[in-house]
Design a protein that fits this description.
The chain is of the alpha/beta class. The chain has one domain (10-249): NAD(P)-binding Rossmann-like Domain (Rossmann fold, 3-Layer(aba) Sandwich). The chain is built from eight helices and seven strands. The chain has helices spanning 19-30, 42-54, 69-83, 107-133, 156-176, 194-203, 207-214, 223-234, and strands at residues 10-13, 34-39, 58-63, 88-91, 138-143, 181-188, 245-248. Strand 2, helix 2 and strand 3 (58-63) form a beta-alpha-beta unit. Helix 1 (19-30) packs parallel to helix 2 (42-54), helix 1 (19-30) packs across helix 8 and helix 4 (107-133) runs parallel beside helix 5 (156-176). The protein is globular and about 50 Å long. The N and C termini lie far apart (36 Å).
């Protein structure tokens, strides 16, 4: 029977205090990985660690602002200090879209979206790869969005940041694949997370309305479904996959 091959490996998950990040952390731990849970808010990160430990898994929390290079460098070092290596990483941290006409877009909001959604991914890949190269390789997954491929009609900053994630993933894979590090992206469709709930509240839409617009399956994704895609891309089963942007979107992009 095929296995994921991540048992005993060390996995870093950013933005892991809830939603897709929490689901990914728990799934990797269930598969036997030792998980470094990173989140800006200590309460959310600690809760994720508690849930993993209740399931019998191993995890530790490291607070970090992943848009700050010093924090990211220390985060990568903490993986080695705590568990001895860094083998897998899922760069999931992000902030909500900016639903505004571009002529009214605030430059500070646009810049924050780029810092948290794109610069953080660059910084994480940079320092994760440096750490993995010292141990002979690894696998990295960057969390994009369907907005990495199809733009939001209002949301220039979010769309630009998520398009950048896919471009960065492809360039990183070109550079790192010959050195034993696979880099891929997962592009989730509309998924019921706290961030999605906040975005829907801003726009005044219901879950049913969101599903009608963004899914062929008549429902929104749940975080564990996105986590499964990240697990597969990090697993031995995806050993010949790199530079790929995998849409997990309920068919949204097929229209």
């Amino acid at each position: 029977m095929a296995t994921t091959g991540i048992d005993g490996k060390v996995a870093l998950v950013t933005g892991a205090g809830g939603g897709m990040g929490r689901a990914t952390s728990r799934l990797f731990a269930q598969e036997g990985a030792r998980v470094v849970v990173s989140y800006l808010n200590e309460d959310g990160g600690a809760e994720t660690v508690d849930l993993i430990e209740q399931d019998g898994g191993k995890a530790t929390f490291v607070a970090a602002d992943v848009s700050d290079e010093g924090h990211v460098e220390r985060l990568a070092a903490a993986c080695v200090e705590t568990y001895g290596s860094l083998d897998l990483a899922v760069n999931n941290a992000a902030v909500v879209p900016d639903f505004v006409d571009i002529v009214d877009e605030d430059a500070a909001v646009f810049e924050r979206l780029l810092r948290v959604n794109l610069l953080s991914v660059f910084l994480c890949v940079k320092h994760e790869a440096r750490t993995m190269l010292g141990a002979g390789g690894g696998a990295i997954v960057n969390i994009g969005s369907t907005s990495s491929i199809r733009p939001l009609d209002t949301g220039a900053g979010y769309t630009a940041s998520k398009h950048g994630v896919v471009g960065l993933t492809k360039t990183a894979s070109c550079q790192l694949a010959p050195r034993g590090i696979r880099v891929n992206a997962v592009c989730p469709g509309a998924t019921m997370t706290p961030m999605m709930e906040e975005a829907m509240a801003r726009r005044g839409v219901t879950e049913e309305q969101q599903a009608e617009r963004f899914s062929l399956l008549g429902r929104l994704a749940r975080p564990h479904e996105i986590a499964q895609a990240s697990l597969w891309l990090c697993s031995d089963q995806a050993s010949f996959v790199t530079g790929h942007a995998l849409a997990v979107d309920g068919g949204y992009l097929s229209r």
